[in-house]
Every structure is written in C-alpha cells, then in structure tokens.
Amino acid sequence: MRYWLIKSEPETYSIEDLISEDIGRWDGVRNYQARNFLKDMKLGDLCFFYRSVHKPAVEAVCKIVKEHYPDPTAESGDWVCVDVQFQNKLQREISLGEIKGNEALANMALLKQSRLSVQPVTVHEFDEILKMSEQKI
DNA sequence: GCCAACGTTGGC
DNA sequence: GCCAACGTTGGC
Q1: Model's pTM, two decimal places?
Q2: Which of A50, A61, A89, A122 is the most buried (most CB within 10 A)?
Q3: Which residue's CA shows the smallest distance to C1' of C12?
C-alpha cells in the first residue's frame, strides 16, 4: 500500500465534483514525472486530494479504484489516467501554510517540487496530516 | 495580477 | 548538445 497526493485547481475539478461523481477519472496529466507516478499507483492505494492555486490545502482522501490506462483525453503520446473514488473529507482541511509549519513534513515533495501534480507521500507524512486534521488549531 | 520555478521548443 | 525564448503551474 502506497500513499499519494494529487492536485487540482477548484475551477477545473473540485472535491465537490469528485463527491458528486463518487468515482472520477484522473486525466489530463501531461508531465512525465507525474505520469510515471500514475503508473506506479496500485488498486487500493490512498491519496490526498489537494486544492491548488486557490487557498491551497489538503481537503480529502480518495482511493485508487482503477489502475492506469490510456488517457482518452490525450490525442497522442503515452499518457495515462487512473480512476479515484472519494473516501472522506478531512475533519478540517490542512493548508499549505500549516504543512510548511510542521517540521515532520519538511521533506514533502509538495514543498520541494511545487509544480508536480501527482506525487508520492510517505506513510509518516500521510499519518501526520491525518493527525493534524483531527486536532483543533 | 505578479512573478518564480520549471518544462518544452527550436535555432544554431 | 547548448541555451534563449516561451508557456504553464502555482504561491502569494
């Protein structure tokens, strides 16, 4: 079991969009590094749903329910997508600012490679963010 | 809206 | 193969 973080701008695809669909196709990735991470995702892996650009924050948890397959939105090239299912919203969202303020999260790819839209998260980072979401500020 | 970071493209 | 120009992402 591995853990991931996937980003989306709310104007493009928000967590509410995923909740209403329940299962959503994570397509449109056009970056090789992100594509390779999509290919590494396995059934049952969990990922954070991260809202980028507008009040950046981790909002929810979702699950990989279909492993990589060719991205139907790609006209050419070896691009893939996966299907993710909504699991739950965090009790409270964890902002990028809070992540930056937590030393245990200092090595997150989110902070080191700000433009990477699909990235791995360690089990420790995953648990830490869940723990933060269960605590009041 | 601005700008830094970074990826891609194309001339040489 | 280098590098300038340009486009995109995403934080602020």
Answers
A1: 0.93
A2: A50
A3: A53
